Amino acid sequence: MAINTQRFDFTEVMINNVVPEKKGVYCLYDTYGRIIYYGMSEVSIKNRLLSHLNGKEGKCTQSARFFSYEESSNPSLRERLLLEDHLVAFRTLPQCNEKIG
Question: Which one, 15, 23, 55, 87, has least CB within 10 Å?
Fold first, then answer.
């Protein structure tokens, strides 16, 4: 099951205003709303998103234009389930995810 929360513009202002300093998962989308990356944080979703925005997580995710997130008590498991669901639905992982787990 995908992350079913609101999508936000992938900007520093938006990340700082809406994302908690809690563990969980997040999704990055391209200009057309296609999922390009699922990620997780065991500490702070906000810090991980800012890291992607600032290019510290690689070039691929810098093309993101929107994001969504959800808090999770087990982010690693939730990320794996999101990636497995994407693989079943689209027969491929999101373009910036190289593997599951």
Answer: 55
